[in-house]
Amino acid sequence: MQSRTGVRKWRPRNAGWVVRTMLALAGLCLLAVSTAAASGKDDKATAAQMVDSGSFGVFMNGHRVATETFSIHQSSGSSSIVSEFKSEAGADKAEQTSEWQMTASGELLKYEWKEVSPGQSQAVVTPSQDFLIERFRSSPQDKEQEQPFLLPASSSLLDDYVFVQREVLAWKFLASSCKQDKGALQCPLKQHVQFGALNPHARSSMSVTVEFAGREKVTIRGGERELNRLDLKSDSGSWALWLDDQFKLQRILISGENTEVVRD
Predict the structure, then answer these.
(1) Buried b (16+ CB within 10 A) or exposed e, 14-46
(2) What integer pLDDT is reported at residue 39 of this predicted model?
(3) Which tens digits make up the pLDDT trace of 230-260?
(4) C-alpha separations of 119 from 6, 27, 87 in Å
(5) Are strands 259-263 and 108-117 parallel, antiparallel or unpaired?
(6) I need a labelling partner for 11 at 20 to 30 A (CA). Which of 3, 161, 178, 209 fits?
(7) pLDDT tens across 87-123, in order?
(8) C-alpha–C-alpha distance, residues 29 and 44, integer Å
(9) What angle separates helix 164-177 from helix 19-26, to the nearest 10 degrees?
(10) What is the DSSP string of 211-252?
(11) Residue 170: enclosing H or E segment and its boundaries?
(12) What sign does the CA torsion over 205, 197, 38, 45 have?
């Protein structure tokens, strides 16, 4: 199935994430709320802290076809996930950017997506009471259109080509279903957890199930590593996600599409 940019669409589905619970689970300052914000004794805004950053290479049939560059920052009052996706080849090179802003508790403040090339479509998602409102246009000159979704602000986003949002989904699953014991991750095997979310690019709400599939030895860039595997399933297909012991996404395998996403 082709997207508006001419690149194959990969669409798993996901949900939001609970920041404070993730902190208790990981003990790594992942999306942590600062002590000052938690106590309410200091009104000064703290500098944004880098939670994760890097790039993912997208490979189809073993050939690199695109790169996503991303960063995740958090401060005492908010967090942001910034992504830039660029295809590697083709007459109409696809390029898009996005930024997901949320409160310290993980609720959506604003999500902005822009197509840089070959078109100039754009979309903005904001909360409105019990709804999420997406405002979009196919080009800057077009009249803005609006579409509501019956989803709370705590819902997550799972946009096309924004693979770092799958890492956020994995964090929520770990926070809600797993614990650490003496540094080891413990999750119930084959226990499905269901989440709901929004795909702004496709303008559709969705649901997915996530389960912990155990530890696996995986070969990445010629080296073997033992990683934590999560299986993500939706009506559109199945994805396998592998995270390291710092809960950072290392690899994605999209079943049936000969597509692999690997952290550089």
Answers:
(1) bbbbbbebbbebbeeebbbbbeebeeeeeeeee
(2) 39
(3) 999 988 789 999 999 999 999 999 988 889 9
(4) 10, 43, 14
(5) unpaired
(6) 178
(7) 986 656 899 999 999 998 889 999 999 999 999 999 9
(8) 19
(9) 70
(10) EEEEEEEEEETTEEEEEEEEEEEETTEEEEEEE-TT--EEEE
(11) helix 164-177
(12) negative
What's the distance, Cα to Cα, between the start and end of the chain in Å? 27
Instruction: Judge whether residue 185 has pLDDT over 90.
Output: no
DSSP summary character for residue 7: S
Query: What pLDDT is stored for residue 190 in this prediction?
Result: 80
Going from the C-alpha of 224 to that of each of 36, 187, 218, 264, the distances in angstroms are 41, 23, 5, 15
Q: How far is CA 263 from CA 41, 58, 85, 145, 220, in A?
A: 39, 9, 14, 36, 9
For 199-238, write each residue's pLDDT tens digit.
Answer: 999 999 999 899 999 999 999 988 999 999 999 998 878 9
Give the DSSP per-residue string, 55-106. EEEEEETTEEEEEEEEEEEE-SSEEEEEEEEEESSSSS--EEEEEEEEETTS
Q: Which two tokens stand for residue 174?
A: 């770990």
- In which residue are the tokens 């969705």 written? 206
Q: Amino acid identity of 189?
A: L
Cβ atoms < 10 Å from Cβ of 49: 15
Provide the whole-model pTM.
0.82
Beta-strand pair 184-186/193-199: unpaired
**Dihedral in degrees, nearest 10, Cα atoms 166, 167, 168, 173:** 90
